[in-house]
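Sharing a chain and its predicted structure for anyone who wants a worked example. Both blocks are below, sequence first, tokens second.
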Amino acid sequence: MKRRVVITGLGPVAPLGVGVADFWNALLEGRTGIRRIQSFDPSSFASQIGGEVERLKVADYVHKGYRKAAKIMARDIVLAVAAAHQVVTDAGLKTKCLLERGEADGEPNVDSARFGANIGAGLICADLPELAEALHAASSDGTFDYARWGTEGMNNLTPLWLLKFLPNMLACHVTIVHDAQGPSNTITCGEASSHLAIGEAFRTITRGAADVCICGGAESKANPMAIIRQQLGDRLSTRNDTPESACRPFAADRDGTVVSEGGGLVILEELEHANQRGAKIYAELVGFGAAHDAHMPAQPSLPPEDGRGVALAMRKALKDAEIDAGAISAVAAFACGLVHHDRAEAAAIQTVLGDRSDSVPVMNVKAGLGNNGAGSGALDIIAAALATHYGTLPPAFNSKPLEDTAQLNVVTDGPVDARLENVLCPAYALGGGQNAALVLRRYQE
């Protein structure tokens, strides 16, 4: 008999708020976390806006003896560590960290050997101030010299410098802090990373290799190196005067996405294990599918117009959940405001839902969040789990007027009360071709 997997904890860390209550209330109220970037001077960039998480300190999320490790934590790692603290607290897990911080009593209520982790990560951007002296030492008359970089430049970097920027360090720190000794993996597939990480954790539990998994993703794109990459790809909105309305998924007048930072982790748990400890259950995870576009367009950064890879991933997730498209109550779309990508995803949803595509409600939360890469899908899943649990769909408040070609029932006003039985959650990587989908179900005993 297939082991049932439920979601018992949610840990969002986003520009809209840190923790379930702040995040969910902001979504329902249609608030935005997008503004002019504050952490550095963005005036030299065409797009000067983004989503940033304020007042985030590692010391608030680890036990005292681990605080020195903050010296080798890039921003992405800090986001993941914060999300981990939020999610284990929300799930009522008594982990090593919470016990040592005095935030839980008694003994651990999860077997460390049966506690796994799968976390999505992006290309962690180096801190420019750290690189400045090294680059200066390796330059001559303003020209970078590779030979001098090896002999002089690198001497200006701390010996542990690289440990801040390895993608697997998100999972590394989270597993050490919370003593998760079960199967662990890192997924680096762009914006599809969180869905793929959650899907792998789902498989880990269903095959009996773990009872509990902490999974999701985190990334910061609100930094100069990430912005220039997105700018070179012509992906960013330049509505600098109106940042609150810049990210416009599915809207007819959208002009690009907005960089952001954040992410989230969820606790997946085998149903019987969750019931034995009296855990609350947000939703059940019943299906997972993954696919690749296998497509080489004239412009490699663009998806196939028919969204074939997203559609295939959704079909696989439905098959895994043992339901057909007629059982879907809502779609938690990934749409991030990019013209071609939104169209491709809309085409995929229409293909999968068929003649129901103009009636099934479609939710989207990126208007107030922007795109934070590997962590963006986790925030979609958290929003979908909350919508399923509370029977409420938050509004996609920047999506009007809808593009005519979308032909989807995007929830542009709200919040809307809805009894959701099965929610389909797709995701795709920008330019990478990777696609994934998950199916969440309203929990029933």
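Comments welcome. The CA atoms of residues 227 and 332 lie 26 Å apart.
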